[in-house]
Amino acid sequence: MSSDRLDRIRLAGDVPSHIAVIMDGNGRWARDRGLPRHVGHREGMKSVREAIEGAVDSGVDILTLFAFSTENWSRPAQEVSALMGLLQLFAKKEGAELRRQGVEVHVLGDLARIDDPTRSAVDEIVSTTRGGTALRLNLMISYGGREEILRAARILAERVAQGSLSVEDIDEDELAGALFTQGAPNPDLLVRTSGEYRISNFMLWQLAYTELHITDVLWPDFDREHLFDAILDFQRRERRFGRVASE
Ligand code: FPP
Question: Is the whole-model pTM more than 0.90?
Answer without folding.
Answer: yes
